Amino acid sequence: MKILVVGTGAREHALARTLSLDPEVTGVHAAPGNPGIAQHATLHALDPLDGTAVAALATSLGVDLVVVGPEAPLVAGVADAVRAAGIPVFGPSAQAARLEGSKAFAKDVMAAAGVPTAAARVATTLDEVAAALDEFGAPHVVKEDGLAAGKGVVVTDDRAAALEHAAACLAKDGGRVVVEEFLDGPEVSLFVLSDGTDVVPLVPAQDFKRALDGDQGPNTGGMGAYSPLPWAPDGLVDEVVEKVARPTVAEMARRGTPFVGVLYCGLALTSRGVRVVEFNARFGDPEAQVVLARLATPLAGVLLAAAQGRLGALEPLHWRVDAAVTVVIASAGYPGDVRTGDPITGLDGADTVPGVHVLHAGTAVRTAVDDPENPDNPLNDPLLVSDGGRVLSVVGVGETLGEARRAAYVAVDQVALAGSHHRTDIALAVAEA
């Protein structure tokens, strides 16, 4: 198989790396990719939101499968363009990707399918927001309706802060927000592969949304994750498949918009049972980094089976007993105004830590430039520099969560990036339990 991966982040690096290890895969291509993905794939410079360009590239390369990683290209219809070109694609249509592209739409689908989730109100004015805040009480949960790179949600006891976030969302063109009741209990991420009819679950993971240790600070796209979850109740995966994934996939098919790809089920294990916090239409980042690190079944055939409607005939997936922990290294200022262009060093040392691999997210290679303060000594280039908010995902794998965690943090300590920050408590509580 020859495969094209669309995207630029650590999730796409994890996909490209995992696919490159598949003995059935003869070539991996990525568009546009990043410097880390270039270790496993041939890169092609194009706009990942341009479905016509992606389809043309896939056709010219003669690939057997296109894997669309991020949500924005899916919502933009990239998968539709590739399907129209007659090439199998792992990723939902633009209509099906509305499960992530519009939280209001996702709530409507869940209501029709009888999926357990938080009570919610869709608001287009601040008066409607205020009424919903008063109805549900604190803690207040306010979500931007559209895509927000994992940073469109505010959970706060401060009513003024909730209104301020809502006002910022409503000020955008077509702006609306979803105000929800707060869901108590720990959160779990479960990816479920779908071919439009059948579903196959992967293993659960847990991510860390807040920027700072102790779940403090603003929401981010995710600062780390781990798998397995030894504290998760028996039968959780089966329950989510039967009560959440299958009804949702069936409802999408009933609407004439079958969901093909991975349905990310963000769940809260509340005192009243499992509730859906959110749906995403793609692998979560950073959860994909740990889930794929544990997958023993070769990935390419699984994704192709989903793209071709053959999941029902698939052999059960096999999983390594090893645990995996990933720690995100973020740029100065993340998740606010980030600073980019800072040199990244120490990756050679990090990669030599047993059980560790480093995945690139926001990185770039700076071309050679002269040092104005020392004309006789140009800056050493090509130089790897930061080029985004979340810069690296450092993945540790070990026999236990404690071993995986230690390996990840030993490698994190090898990396130098001025002004960067990372959480020091990823998987700490469960590893010490």
Report what the structure shows.
The protein has 433 residues and is an alpha+beta fold. Helices cover 30% and strands 27% of the residues. The chain is built from 14 helices and 24 strands. It has a 5-stranded parallel β-sheet, with helices on both faces. A hairpin with a 2-residue loop joins strand 16 and strand 17. The mean pLDDT is 93.
Structural class: alpha+beta
Helical content class: 25-40%
Proportion of beta-strand residues: 25-35%
> Strands of the largest sheet, in order across it?
3-2-1-4-5
> Uncertain spans, ≥5 residues at pLDDT below 50?
none
Mean pLDDT: 93
Integer-rounded radius of gyration:
21 Å
Through-space gap between termini? 43 Å
Shape, per Cα inertia axes: globular
Summarize the structure.
With 433 residues, this protein is of the alpha+beta class.
Features:
24 strands; globular; five-stranded parallel beta sheet; 14 helices; 433 residues; five-stranded antiparallel beta sheet; single chain; 30% helix; alpha+beta
Write the layout of secondary structure elements.
Blueprint (H helix, E strand, L loop, with lengths): L1 E6 L2 H11 L6 E6 L9 E2 L7 H11 L3 E4 L2 H5 L2 H7 L4 E2 L7 H4 L1 H11 L6 E4 L2 H11 L3 E5 L8 E4 L2 H12 L6 E4 L6 E9 L3 E3 L4 E2 L2 E3 L3 E4 L4 E4 L8 H19 L5 E11 L2 E8 L6 H8 L4 H9 L15 E8 L13 E2 L1 H5 L4 E5 L2 E4 L16 E4 L3 E9 L2 H12 L3 E2 L10 H5 L1
Parallel strand pairs: 1-2, 1-4, 2-3, 4-5
Antiparallel strand pairs: 6-9, 7-8, 7-9, 10-11, 10-16, 12-15, 13-14, 15-18, 16-17, 18-23, 19-24, 20-23, 21-22
